């Protein structure tokens, strides 16, 4: 489990990027749900934490691909591959992320630092 | 409507085919493409693909297993559009013809060329262009880029990263001035100068020199820039010659209403070849951006399938992005020469900032350099000119 931030530091409608490998984005939706997905858009190198959060969807800031935060699935192209989702836990007011065991779908030209 | 011919098999054409299926059209779709390739993404051609970081397979736009149940006619350009009593026929360069009840025009644009035909002189539009330019840059020391638009700037940045000496020549007094205004254009020119690229503005090219192969660029003021390779980044013209005599009204591109409908019922157009009526600007406006080619075909298809009765979506402000020297440049809206420009975040001298363009108190455009999160928020505040 990776400690992300105090819950109080992540207001609704905001997102933070965790410097994991590859980076992870944690979103706090307007409805009060917390979701974590891979931060890097699967289409091209862009940080989804910098994207536009609407409902349970984030729109990539570069080319407007949309991903479902609950499933990681692509809701709108140009992205073709889903992002991984990660389990989020809140304990004693701190947000933790449990990274997925699956291999990430990184965009072409972007490699995981450990790969 | 039982059959649709999509003329143009790049981003706009593919987006149109996807929109047809997404909007419930289950008839025959024929995709007609002048290039032999399946739809591919062009923006990386001046960047990661030119640098050799992406392979051709990485450019493919269709997802694995994506099946639009379309018939593909690639490598055969459309040569005309004929009206029949019961629809249309699109004759192709290979002598065959495609018949359809409806037509989507998505033939894109063609790079403008310099009048001098010499080896080592390139334009960049297609993957074949990019491959040829890449091969030529590999053995070259000096590149001259003619035209400080985004393609020219990206090729300059990529070539610089590959170790070439690079000069950009621009006839306007400032680079990128048409898109960004003179002040922000000068800031972006500074980004190139930071990396050792010379930016020569306010002077036209008199001639290219060389015997068979280019060896220099002669400027109107008498200066001569030695060059092993020249890239002309001097814009593109809409690929609409094939429509001559078809009765489709053409100006700077196919003239369309705000929903992509042309002057001929049953024919819509989208992407770089199309000049849509922009209600905000109060005139037709041709947009050559990737985002327009990705998003507007859905509106055009809904116009086509509804017979023009569907109310068009409000078009999003034009948006472009560019990557130069690892900096991410994003711009949205319409910058006018009279706009007041203020820096709202960061510092232009640090090459990381967000600038907002305003006219009469209205936000008209936003420019971000390495300010992605702020840009995401600010671009939503852009108001069309006619909004109030």
Automatic annotation (TrEMBL), chain A:
This is Bifunctional 3-phenylpropionate/cinnamic acid dioxygenase ferredoxin subunit. Keywords: 2Fe-2S, Dioxygenase, Iron, Iron-sulfur, Metal-binding, Oxidoreductase. It holds the Pfam family Rieske. The gene is hcaC. PROSITE patterns: RIESKE. Transmembrane segments: none annotated. NCBIfam families: PRK09965.1. Residues 2-97 form the Rieske domain. GO terms for molecular function: dioxygenase activity. InterPro entries: Rieske_2Fe-2S (IPR017941), Rieske_2Fe-2S_sf (IPR036922).
TrEMBL record, chain B:
Its cofactor is FAD. InterPro entries: FAD-oxidoreductase/Apoptosis, FAD/NAD-bd_sf, FAD/NAD-binding_dom, FAD/NAD-linked_Rdtase_dimer_sf, Reductase_C. Residues 3-295 form the FAD/NAD(P)-binding domain. It holds the Pfam family Pyr_redox_2. The lineage of its organism: Bacteria, Bacillati, Actinomycetota, Actinomycetes, Streptosporangiales. The gene is hcaD_1. This is Pyridine nucleotide-disulfide oxidoreductase. Signal peptide: none annotated. Keywords: FAD, Flavoprotein, Oxidoreductase. Residues 319-383 form the Reductase C-terminal domain.
